Amino acid sequence: MTKKKATKKAITVREEIAQSRLEYLWNVSLSYGTTFPGISRYYVSIMWEMGKRLNYRLDSQTVKRYFCKKCCTIWIPGKTVQIRQTRHKKRKRVIYTCLYCEHCKRYKSCKPIKSS
Ligand SMILES: [Zn+2]
């Protein structure tokens, strides 16, 4: 009984540490997004690999839709990503095209990402 509580507590502490590290990496990569895109890409790739290794779910609305999964470039509308809205069989789609690697990603929702 006490072992289960100890392991559960250890997992939560581990998750808190992982979350704080991922948030730090995301904030650093956002700050370098326009000035040093190579460094920003490096930090996003570290964040993405760390999240996969720890089996941590990144928040889709704030993090996952803001960078390219192929080249890890942070998406800045008009600079690093092209956003198009299309209709196919009465379904609205938003297509994000990365301008660095030309990788396309389609989303169902019609909510575009915010420009900062
Ligand atoms: Zn890309």
UniProtKB/TrEMBL annotation:
Transmembrane segments: none annotated. GO terms for biological process: tRNA processing. Keywords: Metal-binding, tRNA processing, Zinc. It holds the Pfam family Rpr2. GO terms for molecular function: metal ion binding. Signal peptide: none annotated. One of its GO terms (cellular component) is nucleolar ribonuclease P complex. Belongs to the eukaryotic/archaeal RNase P protein component 4 family. This is Uncharacterized protein. It comes from Galdieria partita.
